[in-house]
Design a protein that fits this description.
It is built from 19 helices and 20 strands. It is of the alpha/beta class. The strands form five sheets. It has a seven-stranded mixed beta sheet. A five-stranded parallel beta sheet has the order 10-2-1-14-20. A three-stranded antiparallel beta sheet has the order 5-9-6, with helices on one face.
Length: about 525
């Protein structure tokens, strides 16, 4: 019997198993191996009981973006296929949460422009540096370094000035990667701008037009991503409502998505999901097939292995054969504190929330704060205001050190919303989640290490292993889902799994996106 093993039961592993189950016949075995006691990875929704009713607390991602990108459409189509349409709650594109996003700067909330028309009222204090930054890039001669990568901090400072990074870019990267721009790779995370700097005669802005031409040439002949007509015709109301939304989640929280995927996978007789099974070794067996050993001594033989484990969980699994990416990809730890207060509208402004840039780290100890009740009011079934404070990331050791992390995080979060939002009084509920090593940091030199990881992976298990996950195509849920779909549907030859090694890494499309133009 042909067998495929998926390592990891987070969103990447479940998505991989889901697309495999749609493609392979019922006589192909699919096994999902998860070390923890639950599936879903960092997607976690906890139900909490308060004196005035039940609430939900998101410990990880809390919303998903709509749109026409392959990543966004992958998740929307997955939601459709899982029959979760009636569970979806949408945030309208004209809602306050969609239009109002803030940066905490100089002790106040600075509303960032969301459209050209919003610029009519002028730039907020945090963003006034953009004018000088653009002028600096436009007038300064090219000063591209010889090295093929540099940090986001170095790149933005070199072309636009340090204030643009300190006031703006650092805040954005805190929100996405919970990491410092001084550690993040400009080539990996700002690739179009990094490439424009190398193609333009006088910096980034002058090179963007050339990058656009290269992009059009690369994508010539490809159709624009859209929902196929047959799918839209089956559920027109759902797809029409999505068209007018900016983001969405589920009434029961984000965990609805992995839970439903796991439920439907378990209904298939050829799919097995094992929790509480930590991978301890991977090797080639006497038959030439891959063997995965889990703690307790159980050995699983497979024709192919899709590895979605975080890089730190792969340490030692493949013996002494290491690759630089395993050693040089740190993970950020984030503490999420969900606070619930009695009464609606307790935040001083309506919006999605705010991020804290490096320039404000002397004023705030948070990475950012999300206004959950404003972003998704339909999730509130009682008269409450929910906010989430995110702490840690590059300041984790500074803030927590050897302290009791949960106790300290509670104090810091309560102090943050009191000082920065003016929310006083006792919280109805405080829920703390410590996300240890939860977000991969794409450090300087990432693209070169990714190429090495590609070659290393094709050598492992006699070419019977490939990779999918947050450390490669991006850490967001849509990026993980689309990576799984693309790999299974476009790169694995599922008809020959039991006949010959696949010799693919799962990183082909990602590496191609970083190819330099001829």
């Amino acid at each position: 019997m042909t067998a495929i093993t998926v390592l990891g039961g987070g969103i990447s592993g479940l998505s991989t198993a889901w697309y495999l189950a749609q493609k392979v016949p019922a006589n192909v075995s699919i096994k999902v191996i998860e070390a923890s006691s639950r599936v879903g990875g960092w997607i976690r929704t906890d139900r909490r009981h308060t004196p005035i009713g039940e609430i939900i607390a998101e410990a990880g991602p809390r919303t998903l973006r709509t749109g026409k990108s392959p990543d966004a459409l992958s998740v929307l189509e997955l939601v459709d296929d899982l029959d979760l349409r009636s569970h979806v709650i949408l945030s309208d594109a004209q809602s306050a949460a969609a239009r109002n996003r803030y940066i905490y700067y100089d002790g106040t909330l600075n509303r960032m422009p969301s459209s050209l028309s919003s610029l009519a009222s002028g730039l907020p204090a945090a963003a006034t540096c953009l004018v000088g930054g653009v002028w600096r890039d436009f007038t300064r001669k090219s000063n591209t370094p010889v090295e093929n990568d540099e940090s986001v901090h170095e790149f933005i400072g070199r072309r636009f000035g340090q204030k643009v990074d300190d006031n703006l870019a650092s805040a954005v990267m805190h929100g996405i990667y919970a990491a410092d721009t001084k550690d993040l790779s400009a080539r990996a995370l700002l690739y179009p701008f990094w490439l424009a700097d190398r193609m333009g005669k006088r910096g980034v802005i002058s090179g963007l037009r050339k990058v656009a031409r290269v992009s059009r040439a690369r994508h010539a002949g490809r159709s624009v991503e859209s929902v196929d007509g047959e799918r839209r015709a089956r559920n027109p109301e759902f797809w029409t409502s999505v068209d007018g939304a900016s983001m969405y989640s589920f009434r029961g929280g984000m965990q609805t998505l992995p839970d439903e995927m796991a439920k439907k996978l378990r209904e298939r007789p050829n799919v097995e999901i094992s929790t509480g099974s930590k991978v301890v070794a991977a090797r080639v067996g006497a038959t030439g097939k891959a063997q995965i050993e889990v703690d307790g001594g159980r050995v699983i033989e497979s024709d192919h292995v899709v590895n979605t484990l975080p890089l730190h969980a792969m340490q030692g699994v493949f013996g002494s054969d290491q690759t630089p990416m395993l050693d040089h990809t740190p993970y950020s730890s984030v503490v999420v504190v969900n606070l619930t207060y009695k009464g609606k509208g307790r935040t001083p402004v309506d919006g999605f929330g705010y991020l804290v840039p490096r320039a404000s780290q002397h004023e705030s100890r948070a990475l950012g704060v999300v206004f959950d009740s404003c972003a998704l009011p339909e999730q509130d079934t009682c008269d409450v205001t929910r906010v989430t404070v995110m702490l840690g990331g590059p300041r984790f050791k500074e803030l927590f050190g050897s302290k009791d992390v949960e106790a300290e995080a509670k104090l810091l979060a309560l102090d943050t919303v009191q000082r920065e939002l003016g929310i006083r009084g006792d919280a109805l509920d405080v829920h703390v989640t410590v996300g240890a090593q939860c977000i991969p940091t794409y450090t300087t030199g990432y693209v070169d290490r990714l190429q090495q990881m590609h070659e290393w992976t094709k050598r492992q298990l006699n070419g019977r292993m490939s990779l999918v996950g947050a450390a490669y195509g991006g850490p967001a849920v849509p990026q993980c889902v689309n990576h799984a779909r693309t790999h299974v549907c476009d790169h694995l030859n599922l008809d020959t799994l039991d006949q010959s090694p696949q010799c693919v890494s799962g990183l082909e499309e990602i590496i191609k996106a970083f190819d330099l133009p001829a």
